[in-house]
């Protein structure tokens, strides 16, 4: 994770992991690859890398404590610091889950369930484990940063966005039956409205 100068490469690792995860799901599920899904895939990987890297966190008192000095907060509720709610911690964690889920949903062309899994694993569990590993490599003596509260908050952002999109897509399908939908014609340039219609109907 670190070189001799102490630069953290977890962001690069995360970006590659996010890119590989989405491309793998796209290949396994035969998901349509066009300029919209491919652009969302690249944007998703960059966003994941930016958030995982130290400079990707907002400048605030809760962002990231000095390496080797973080606490272990594994029990939700009992070990929660109420002062966090006085900062932008909660909206920022929810925004992290929501924004990455939005891009993953486009990249996976409306495959909402797999987008849920990919984002929660990457942005929830994976991010916290990477920080714990980073601390372990720098200092083998605990405490390490493993914060279940962050995982839960990001997951809430994912699930709220998922429910919101599911409701919107259900209403859309009810108001505009398939016979009224713009068509995507194979072999011709994709029209944005046709892509958007198909994406919404797949959620």
Key structural traits:
203 residues, mainly alpha, globular, disordered N terminus
Radius of gyration: 19 Å
Mean pLDDT: 75
Strands, count = 2
Tertiary shape = globular
Could you characterize the architecture of this molecule?
By secondary structure, the chain is mainly alpha-helical. It has six helices and two strands; from the N terminus they run ααβααβαα. The chain has a two-stranded parallel ribbon. The radius of gyration is 19 Å and the shape is globular.
Can I get a quick summary?
With 203 residues, this protein is mainly alpha-helical.
Task: Draw up the topology in text.
Layout lengths: L9 H20 L5 H18 L19 E2 L15 H19 L4 H27 L7 E2 H28 L16 H11 L1
Parallel strand pairs: 1-2
């Amino acid at each position: 994770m670190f070189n001799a100068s102490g630069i953290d490469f977890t962001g690069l690792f995360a970006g590659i992991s996010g890119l590989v995860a989405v491309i793998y799901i796209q290949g396994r599920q035969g998901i349509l690859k066009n300029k919209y899904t491919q652009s969302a895939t690249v944007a998703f990987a960059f966003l994941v890398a930016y958030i995982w890297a130290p400079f990707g966190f907002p400048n605030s008192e809760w962002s990231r404590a000095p390496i080797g000095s973080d606490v272990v907060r594994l029990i939700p509720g009992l070990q929660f610091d109420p002062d966090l709610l006085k900062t932008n911690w909660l909206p920022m964690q929810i925004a992290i889950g929501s924004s990455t889920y939005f891009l993953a949903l486009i990249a996976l062309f409306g495959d909402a369930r797999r987008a849920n899994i990919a984002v929660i694993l990457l942005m929830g569990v994976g991010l916290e484990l990477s920080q714990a590993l980073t601390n372990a490599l720098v200092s083998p003596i605990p405490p390490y940063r493993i914060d279940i509260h962050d995982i839960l908050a990001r997951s809430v952002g994912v699930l709220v966005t998922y429910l919101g999109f599911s409701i919107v897509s259900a209403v859309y399908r009810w108001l505009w039956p398939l016979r009224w939908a713009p068509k995507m014609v194979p072999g011709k340039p994709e029209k944005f409205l046709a892509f958007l219609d198909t994406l919404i109907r797949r959620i």
